[in-house]
Amino acid sequence: MRVARPVTLNPEQRRDLEQHSRARSLSARWVERARIVLRAADGLQDRQIAAELSITPEKAARWRNRFLDGGLPALHKDAPRPGRTRTITAAAVKRVIDKTTREKPDNATHWSTRTMAAAVGLSEASIRRIWHANGLKPHLVRTFKISNDPHFAEKLQAIVGLYLNPPQHAIVLCADEKSQIQALDRTQPGLPLKKGRCGTMTHDYKRNGTATLFAALNTLDGTVISMCDDRHRHQEWLQFLRVIDDVTPSEKELHLIVDNYATHKHPKVKNWLTRHPRFHVYFTPTSSSWLNMVERFFRDLTQNGLRRGVFRDVEELTTTIDTYIDKHNDKPKPFIWTAKAADILEKVKRARTALDNRQSV
After folding, report:
1. Paired residues of 205 in beta bridges
2. Could you tell me the pTM of the whole model?
3. Measuring CA to CA, which residue among 336, 358, 361, 351 is closest to residue 148?
4. Does the structure show a pLDDT above 60 at 349?
């Protein structure tokens, strides 16, 4: 007669199995498996355990062996099963992937699950599963622009260096202007939010003028220095630089990160900076406004304070902007830059290679 493998339990294992075998909150499967192992440790054979617990001998042998091979954790989960036989072949999956990435439908710019299903003869749900499994999202598109600045690497390293290793006894400010902020008044009052219905606002509007916000974000503590004006010429930029000069400690060096807007390079601006040597200006590369962290603050301002606002005149718009910035400065939260310059350069290199290959084709 075949003799089952003996089971030996240490005191801790026996205590845990006895607790689980009497538990009322655990699943019946786990309780039964604990009882099988305990009876096997008492010296019973698989047929005896099967007769006592009203199960098959094969089941008793299976969980005895799984405990001996994997210990207590092996009792918590079932072995993987093969599942249902696949009805969609690998060739069909490859065809869907190839058509998605290399072709376009005749009457559209991108595939949908329905148009792809009709093209390859599969169900819409099958197309969705294939796309999901392979990370394909034809309905989404992202904008990009690779900078052609010949000094891109040097400018990038200088700015990222300020973010990751800011100089001591100095203030790093990300400065820029958000121009043409429109004071929009809706043509009809919107309906308020209520249960079962989102808030509403009319799609058309009355434009009551525009304003320009000048802002400088302190990368250390997240506070914002701001000024609103009607225009954004070099005169207003000079005025904003004077505001920064007045509100910051005079003994601190100031490192300003700005973009390549012509106003920032006006001769009068350069002359003013020459007379104020504590200002050190770093220009972002062309087509690289994403390097300036104040753009992230502008995004929050637009999303949280302006997009759904109703402004009957420019003064109401500027008051809303000033109030938002004051509230932000009461509890500032800095944006943390984590990307290293080398990683960004490597990503840009890959993008440029892909773009060059695309253009050559």
Report:
1. 186
2. 0.72
3. 351
4. yes
